Batch of 4 targets.
Target 1
Amino acid sequence: MFLEVNDVVAGYTKEVSILNGVQFAAEEGKVTVILGPNGAGKSTLLRTVYGYLKPRRGEVRFRGELLNGRRPSEMLRHGIAYLLQGHSVFPSMSVEENLELGAWIFGKDRQARARAIEDAYDHFPRLREKRRGAAGLLSGGEQRALEIARLVMTSPKLLLLDEPSVGLMPKLVDSVYEEIARLKDRKMTVVMVDQNVKKAVAIADQVYVLKLGANSYDGPQADFLLRMDEIVKGWL
Amino acid sequence: MDWSMLADPNILTVLVLQGLVRGAMYALMGIGLSLIFGILGVVNFAHGELFMLGSYVMYLVVGIFGMPFYLGIVAAAGVVFVCGVAIERGLVEQLRRRAGRDWISDSFVLTIGLAVVLQNLAHLAFGSRQYGVAELVAGSVPVGELEISLERLAIFGLACLAVLLLWAFMKFARTGRAIRAAAQNAEAAETLGIDVRNLFTVTFGLGAAFAGVAGALLISIYPASPTVGAEPLLKSFAVVVLGGLGNVSGAIAAGLLLGVLEAFTIFIAADGWQNVLTAYLVILVLLVRPAGLFVLGGKRA
């Protein structure tokens, strides 16, 4: 399996576990969506995969390699990118400086950095227009574009997205999902936590549902759509 | 007090220059404190002791070994940088790993304790005597019928140079850019592959080096002694409150402003009253603009 989470127990304090033996797998080149009511541990699962939390039990494997105990700052070099919940641009730095930092792992390789930044501009021409402006002054949609651009500029293999459409104007929400569907065309594997059940499932290949830190459902998109009413009932 | 003296341009010039020299030291101290707070969230109560270390290094290099004063300043910056790195890796980092979420309030106790330890170590090593260097640069420049010593001007110039170097580092160096990014959003910086832990260490070292440079530059005014850091520490707290906690450019502006205000206060009232004015200013700013004089919106101090 591309990404594998086996029987993971994790939490923020010693006394309380948020994840109680979660089982999860994501296939290469597919979009896997994790759904569930508030407090189900969806974001915690991503944070555990990315190394912000150490699993107390169980293991996280990426292409067969054990990730347990690795630090978040090592992940991008392993080909795993993580889109934080909410806005995460560096607001008082320029768009270009944000992209420069997105190319951080290229180190002193000036050419690789310049090429990655050019690619990002080609992909999001709006960012090129505003390259000298402070990132904090961009609109919500432009900031999200910058965040996604910054995330994919090193061509990671696996993207972890934590509620990519939350806090955006309704008319921008669709464009974010279109963008994610396009990432799939670029052979990136996506694991996405979302509250927006309909739109997330529309671009999903595989769907997981968590409840109270444990697996409640998993199946392919078509099966989820058939049983959606029954599965989603009782969340609200 | 003859107020008409304040209308004399020569007196005004000398007062402003004296104020800027004083302010440059406050700015250097405030920058260090602000850097460390802005990136790590730690209020460094041992900042005065880093000043003290800088002044002892200066004394050893210039006063004992007879080297030129600029070597003393470079040595002070280097030694105190290394001390800062050791403090961060050996103490602050360990606390952050072990104390969990409450580590910030625990770090207060850590740095206060460190200040006491460093003071007493200095006492053991050098005793309570004051060690100074008579004059770094001889001579003076005339300002009308008055004069201002070249040494004071050199102190001001070198402080400005240190600030300029920091600015260039933050603006153009890769590490400097990463430090700014981590100050704005440490978690996001980590997701880009930036090792924030190393940045914490570098930043603590840099902040410490600034205190060390301040201690070295001011050795002829504040001779090295175990408790020499107390006053600079107090002033640097005033500076970061006025300038906005964690705001480095605010610390520069507030430092210079405070220095000039104090120079005038000493002239108009008497030596000692500048401390009263500073305390009043701090209270006033906390009441009226708690985020700092030079902050639009922003976080509260």
Target 2
Amino acid sequence: MSVSIQRLEEIKKDFLSKQKVFQKTIRVCCGTGCISSGALKVLEKLRTALKTEGLDEKVKVIETGCHGFCERGPIFVFGENDIFYQMVGKRNIDADVSALIETVKSDKIAQNLLYPDPNDKTKKFVATREIPFYSGQQKIVLHLNGYIDPESIEDYIARGGYVALHKALQMKPEEVIDWIDRSGLRGRGGGGFRTGRKWRSCREAHGSPKYIVANGDEGDPGAFMDRSIMEGNPHAILEGMIIGGYAIGSNDGYIYVRDEYPLAVKRLTKAIEDARRLGLLGDNIFGTGFRFDIRIFRGGGAFVCGESTALMQSLEGKIGEPKAKYIHTVERGLWDKPTNLNNVETWACVPLIINNGWEWFANIGTKNSTGTKVFSLVGKVNNTGLIEVPMGLTLREIIFNLGGGIQKGRKFKAVQTGGPSGGCIPAEYLDTPVDFDTLTELGSMMGSGGMIVMDERNCMVDVARYFLNFLVEESCGKCVPCREGVKRMYEIVDRICNGEGREGDIEHLEELGKAVKLGSLCGLGQSAPNPVLSTIRYFREEYEEHIKHKKCRAGVCKPLITIKINEKCNGCMVCARNCPVSCISGEKQKPHVIDQSKCIKCQICYDVCRFDAVTIE
Amino acid sequence: METDRAKLDNTIAKYGNDRSLLLSMFQDIQREYRYLPKEAIKYVCEKLNIPVVKGYEMATFYKSLSLVPRGKHTIHVCMGTACHLKGAPGVLEAFERDLKVKRGGTTEDMLFTLESVNCLGACALAPLVRVDEKDFGKVNQTSVKNIIDEYKRGE
């Protein structure tokens, strides 16, 4: 028997009536970040304590996906009054669990678990909605992340899940495509191509069968939004894909997930099984005769497989080498058949557009970049984590309002967007509204949404070297400009970092960069020079300092720095005890000295000194 | 290492003898042996009627596959951008010093293999280290020893 809208309604009623026995809900973030911070241990203790207190039947504890505020994990939120507890169990796990029980029993708020203002520690926030990190966001893609149990299809259905699918199946496929097109949705994976246009080309392409692919091979370093959607709300992706399948005329979908994301694989697998069980995947969905099924494919730890043609090669059981795109994948993709590939975040937008109408989506964001974008705000910013904001918000608003400014009160230097294909944007462009086109104009790109904030202690030449090294390792080696060109660029930048830079190196890098851009086959190579070219464009003086004066102002490039101990040293001996090569000597309570001939410049002494006595020159 | 043919047959059958799922088969075999034994590559390729060289191509292209035996625990030091900026290179060096192996190497007692990885997607907790399936966030050079000790004690 096929699934019906009445059946969904029944599941919803049944689920909600079961919830009535609970007087309270606690939503526990079980995203990867909070799990690494120890959320599961606290959760286990909380469950035991609730049982001992006889409260386990009255309090519902939901293990949700990522809440976004990873910096402050483990996160526990009380459902009814929105009390936001952070860093639970970080200092004293038993005391914190007792505090949670107290809040359950008497709504007593534990002050020490509240989020303090990073710039004024005496000010504390009680409710989630009051915290600037959350209040500045507009969550539509992530609206259920942190609320639902990602392993419960019933929970998703109770919040209106799969209604969009039913609605779409009542529409004509062309009409669905028309809605997606008019919504202005652009691919969230990096390129920013119009999704509706892509779908239409694929529908009109000759050949069958046709395939649907969700790209969950989120390889950009510093980005984890796709992971959070896959782990936190997997059904949204499935629903989007089924709608896409119907619109394009495809019956088979694949989700390609990174090997590094085991939890995402687990939750997607469960979601697919549940959807099959209810008849939301399989034959005759909603009695319309439409058949669709989805399979998961685990990647093998190769960055280049995030590129669409390479991903399809990998799906075919080959190594992930990209192909030239003379013929688009919408015409000849997987097994040479028309294939429509979108990023998982794009797929998760689809049910929202169908549910709320294309006008609604088109009204969010800017004229040419509609909707919201999920960013991972990381690096040297106070509030690191995952945020979703409307397109067009400025970098300043994102970094200083939501992000709470730079850590340790240091100075902002640059923000890197777009992963290894993007670039570094300096302070003078902080007031730029963020969308697909403005970032490209600045020599960077949207990419998948990584936003890595750098401060004055980060060396831009070192950052360029970092990305080049990344690309040298990840280049598949198929075409020469990328395989050899990027390596040569790396060698030059490495030389500069080591204090062996020569006159003319910068010009040489620019020339090589242009050649690699022009000559490479796929997006990885074509955008590979971006991190170098953008840092030269905005931070040329740092390159020149390295080359001419052999100086690294950020104190990062080891051959160019000397670590010294100044007169502030009171001889506490902490640095000497921690030095891995025992090159620090001195008597107790007297200033210490570093033996420069032995020093490996690991900077542990700098990190452990509490008296500002260690300096990097 | 002696490979169990019956087990290999099971793995191949699990994926329906489908050649396009070779990577998945290899990943399962690697989980079993902690690396991809040469005999296993040869056996699976012959069974699926794929040239053995294609199997090697696969095994050397994808980073998650290893042709050399790995230690009991694999330490992945994340080298993502956020981790890099927050001191991951120093953390990797600290592991190299303490374990006396270079990146990619395995300790003599076969207890640890040290690897770097280009982003584990927990950037808010940078620098991140993953040992087997467990993540350690905000690691610094001085906490490296504690992580190693935790696993040594478990022996």
Target 3
Amino acid sequence: MAGLVLKDVRKTYGEVTALKNIDLVFPSGKLTALLGPSGCGKTTLLRIIAGLETPTRGNLSLNGEDITTLPANRRKFGMVFQSFALFPHLSVGENVAYSLTISGVEKKTRSKRAQELLDLVQMADFQDRRIGQLSGGQRQRVAIARALAQEPQVFLLDEPMSALDAQLRETMQVELRLLQQQLNITTIVVTHDQREAMTMADEIVVMSNGVSEQIGSPTDIYQRPETPFVASFIGKANFLDGTVRGGRVFVGDSAFDLEKPAPFVDGSPVQLVCRPENAELCAADTNASNILTGPVSFVRDVGPTREVFVETDAGRIICEMPSSDATPVTQGEVTGIRLKSHTLFCFPRPDPGNLEKTVEEAGRRENVAA
Amino acid sequence: MKATFKNGFMLLCAAYISLPIVIVCLSALNGGRSMLFPPKDPTFARFYEFFVSEPVWLRSMENSIIVALASATLAVLITWPIAYDQWKRNTAFSKALTGLAGLPFALPPIVFGVGLSFLWTFAGGLGNIFTGILSHTALLAALPLVTISIGLQSIDRFHLDAAQTMGADEPTILRTIILPQTLSYTLSGFFFVVVLSFHEFIVIFFVSASAYSTVTLQIFNSLRNGFTPTMAVGAITFLLVSIVVFSAVARYGDLPRLLGADPARKDN
Amino acid sequence: MSDLAAASSLVHARDGTRLKGQEGPRADAVQSIGARPIIMTVIAAFLVFVFLAPILLVIAVSFGEKIEGASWVWAFDPSNYARVFVGIGWPDQITLLYAYKLGYTLAYAVLGSLIAIAFAFPFTYFLSQCSRPAQAAWLVFILASLSMSEVFIVMGWDIMLSNRSGLPALFKATGVTAWLKDTGWLAVLKDWGLANPRNVKFKTSQLATVLTMAYLVWPYAVILLYAPLSRIDRSMIEAARTMGAGSFTVMRTVVVPVVRIPVMGTLLLLFVYLLGAYVTVTYFAEPAHQTLPVSIYEAIRGATLNAPFGAAQAVVLLSTAGVFILASLWLGRLAENRGR
């Protein structure tokens, strides 16, 4: 099979499981983002792909060839580290040419190649600078050039933007994406920032707790989350506890129709998820379906959108609407909220307190992995 | 606390520390054979004696330099693999070697000197300059061991990962990343040994068995007869060497870090 | 090291083609794996022979037996130790000559290291607040004075304290001596052994011995205290200040408690270092107040020539040092655990 394929990859540190049964395909020439909260195992997975860690079980293959036991220095996947890991004892040019130097490429060829790469990342005039003289953004460009110098089959980036300030981050995300498309290189980016993943990736792998929760395009993942975790981690979401009866979901006395009848037997406890921008204010009408009512507890205008907090019997619902066509509401006023049926997702309800536990475990794993 | 009090106290300490050293230096100018302060009939004749006309000092100087450079080289060569092994593998064996290498420096030198004199008596070689070199190597190996270990610990582990993803295997990483990045620490350790070997006398006294002497030992041997201004020239020479060496370490290495300051706090 | 480097450059004499993980298994990798045990074994053997054997030999010889008018023979004779603690005539009579020497050794070392710490602590605290370049400059100065041989330092103090030049001459020239005579302080000083009928006298005196010892380890104290003091979290001090603590209160309630353990550790190390002081004692202490190192020297190479007895004294000194070194290591570990 073309591309990088992970089969049943598992990683444990003593008692702690960092990754369980990861099956993934990274298609050639595409940019895949591994997205998840800190400690979800995404960096461990990237290090296993690079060959810096060996999986406890499972195997990796690249274009049909098994590379599970191939050490990192023979895989030669270019990698950009969170701290960039540029060598301070070498100049910018020498850093970029490092992989060529150690494999014995002659000086002329390698300095020509280094210059080409520095041109590519718009650092043409920096070949002789010391690393200490560079700013964060410049360092990142050099780190990218250095990782590409060996013409890697797979290009890995571990939280590449986290050392940059917010403004530069946005610019670099676009630049990196354009560069990747230009080179058409199989790329894997680890990030905890959903916006970053959505900006750059062809495909996003959402990870939590050592497993991949969902794989899909950015729009897929946002509009059709497959688990409550994905729904809550990607974008904002309102959660409502309900019960299925006859394909409809009942939250308290209110009935909700979905796009298709909910695929659960009657009486199943479920969770109903609705994005704030899909909840709209309407007249309070307790008899109509897909409507909840309650008093407005808080209103805030955040630039292009307005958010209205409504305290319904089923809990707080946040509605988001464009500021331009916001209906005037006042705090304390009772209002209805309509949740459009085609925007509702329905998941089996997890055990109470499960999510908190997940986060706790994830934090512990992070410590071990570090 | 008031800045003036702070500075005043520090300068007072500096003065207190410099005073005897300055006095030694100035008494080298004495015209006569006795150490007087302030110097009588100031002259530079003692420098001429020390460096040119009295072969005993020249010979001692030569021995001092041979012992210092050779033992510093040996100490670095021995401690590098120990420090590297300890850093890389951290086994019980490497821990034991590290402890053993640092042991002599922690003991009263007279005890170690006595032990070495027994050793070279039984093994042969007492009074040979080669055993003097080995003895100083053993006594002072702790210094490069510490500086090299600090150097190795200061390497960012991600640098090693990065080198690996670019195709470097262990020996290549050692050659292209670890050795260059720890060079200043290694040199610091080397020069610490050179300087302390210059000034050491008790161990070299026991193992030289009066067959040869270094400058410091020569002065130590003349102790009973009192100091002379020519000896002060030796003190000045070594003081200058120390200042040059430590300034170089401060200039090219990170001296505060070597001595344990928080590496992250660069500006305060 | 050179062997390792050579091995690594050998390994890397490979062709210039650029590969992507396609190289065959490399025989040279095996070679570098084979070099490590050989290098480490050679080094271990060297360490055992030159680093460890001397210490073991001292212990072995200390049980030897001195032959009158000749050298000595191997034996298992604990009488050398008995002689150190209770004298050669024991059990008929007890001579505490060497026990006193041990006592003086400990007393000088304790006083010297305490005085050194007392002055080094504030100095180092101020030093750690200087700018980084200023710190480096100070450290060069400290290291240069630290590396000065005991021989040279005693040389300087000898001139400063000698009766012909230095302090006594200065006292006389400035009239301080005359003033001391008039006020009767000279008589008091004479009782303390610090004056003769004509002038003050510092050589030989225990005061001079202890002060020179303190001087000897002062730079060591600064170097050892530098690490913990410069690692103190600055914001902690600032926090105390915002809560109304003055400089002295900050020192007393924040700095000292935080570095209490490293200070104790430093004290122990200075103490161990001073146990071995030799030139200072021979120069500034009168024979009756001299220490074990001096008598070890006499026994091994000096007038008395009794190697087993010298070795026994060395073992006593070694054990004393060993106990305190272990204590300082334990304190070090304690401090590390507290730091977590």
Target 4
Amino acid sequence: MKNKIKVFRAMHDMTQEDLAQAIGVTRQTILAIEKGKYVPSLDLAFRIARHFSVTIEEVFTYDDELPIKGNRG
Amino acid sequence: MKKNTFYLICGCIALLLLAVFWYSVEVHNPLFIEIAFLLGIAIAYLARKRVTDLVEDERSAKITEQAVLRTFQVFWVVFCAFSIGAVMQILYIPQGPRVLFTQPPPALLSPRMMGYFQLALLCLMIFLYVGFRIYYARKYGDWETDEE
């Protein structure tokens, strides 16, 4: 799963901390999502997209070439 | 209440429990430590609810969930394997002509030692949980360096 959170943050001149506070998560979670270490839930993905007033597909894109990893142990 | 205050309270509770434990040993009364342990957990739980600057989100919940799941998966296998062996030892029935087996073979561990070993396994579960917690926290990017 790829995402453009960093791009949207830059466009809105937001830090990770600002975004984290706005959507009610920790800064570490935003960092982990940006780096692809953590795949957010659908609920969190919608919250991020809505915060930037865009659709979820504009922020998150599913990469067919990558193996399905998700957050499973 | 601040997060650090909560950790300080937890430290104090642990020290007090240690003191009560030794007192219980001295007076040969386990009731003191049992009640103190329950009270300590209750106080820690109430204090935890009053912490204001501790943000828990879905990622931290996921880390905890995975760590707990893996701990139990490993723990029950080890615990059951040992317990089955212990039960076999207790239920020892000699085979063949019984006159030849007047005494059971020497036990590897006495029933009392088996109980202690099971208790030790329960205590080791805490370390197992901490290990898995560190592993999953690392996996889900807890110690990632910031690029900002």
